[in-house]
Amino acid sequence: MSTENIYILGIESSCDDTSASVICNGKVLSNVVASQEVHAKYGGVVPELASRAHQQNIVPVVQQAIEQAGITKHNLNTIAFTRGPGLMGSLLVGTSFAKSLALGLNIPLIDVNHMQAHILAHFIDEEESKTPPFPFVCLTISGGHTQIVKITNHFEMEILGETIDDAVGEAFDKSAKILGLPYPGGPLIDKYAQLGNPKAFKFTKPKVGDLEFSFSGLKTGILYFIQRNVKENPNFIKENLNDICASIQYTIIEILMDKLKNTVKQTGIKHIAIAGGVSANSEIRKRLILAEKHWGWTTYIPKFEYTTDNAAMIAIAGYLKYLNNDYSDISVTAKARLKVTE
């Protein structure tokens, strides 16, 4: 075991992507992701099929990550894995594999909170990326989460506000489904929105607390709007797709930006990061870059490959825990529900 180089293997299997990554002293050497095509025809992730696909993918993905990193498994100092939150069947595959490998290699095991890892992806050592100073605020936006989190240090986090019903990623995907777009629809709304007029149609923003989110009413509003217009003109979606997508996206991003403005007002913190799958959205990225000019914020936007579920973020969280000697017991179990503060 080399003293100067710390090699961490990260394993991510919380939903429908099997991923493995090797990082050395905070730098990514490999980040392999195997996506599962099987769910597209069902219009959403089927948990049973997801866990079976993880079982098929995990050995080749881990092997590939180690080979791409140019090391052998005996160079590894520790194994970090996603404990939760996520789909139980999927999490169990990663957890069991990580435990067996750690036992076989006689190295420590580190469990990682998936939502903390999304935030800690900002600490991956990259030439072109700046690292946020503490304290900073992170907007975590994904298919399962919409939260504003205050980060005081790597592992001290506080939820300032969150959604009272659905997550923002779900709002994108459900809106896409209403429009007849295939799953996952969020990226398609983003794509068509580029060509449309964001002010073409107006959707009502929900009235909730200053730092709270709500998307279920917006989804219903979009559904009724589409049904009403299609009744009058069966080709309404086809003729207005770009404008509808642009208007939906504009409304959702406006909601997110309003809450961030309220957060800065209340906390005085002007270092703003985004994390999670929806942070790949081009409009939120654009608006955050503009916020630097307009409101004097400093914004931190992750590289595209660290926005969706990936093992590099698990590995960096594992590395930061390793430096703290924060290891897991081999009896650790997967948890489908886990708060970002746990």
Number of distinct helices = 9
Q: How much is the radius of gyration in Å?
A: 21 Å
CATH superfamily of the largest domain: ATPase, nucleotide binding domain
Helix content: 40-55%
What's the number of extended β-strand segments? 10
Distance between the termini: 31 Å
Number of domains: 2
The CATH topology of the largest domain corresponds to: Nucleotidyltransferase, domain 5
Largest sheet: 5 strands, mixed
In CATH terms, what is the architecture of the largest domain? Answer: 2-Layer Sandwich
Bin the strand percentage. Answer: 15-25%
Order of secondary-structure elements: EEEHEHEHEEEHHHHEHEH
Which CATH C-level class of the largest domain is it?
Alpha Beta
- Provide the low-confidence segments as ranges: none
List the helices and strands and how they pair.
Elements: E1 7-12, E2 17-24, E3 27-35, H1 47-68, E4 78-84, H2 88-105, E5 109-113, H3 114-120, E6 136-141, E7 146-153, E8 156-162, H4 168-178, H5 186-193, H6 216-232, H7 236-267, E9 271-275, H8 282-295, E10 298-300, H9 311-323
Parallel strand pairs: 1-4, 4-5, 6-9, 9-10
Antiparallel strand pairs: 1-2, 2-3, 6-7, 7-8
Helix pairs in contact: 1-2, 3-9, 4-5, 4-6, 4-7, 5-7, 7-8
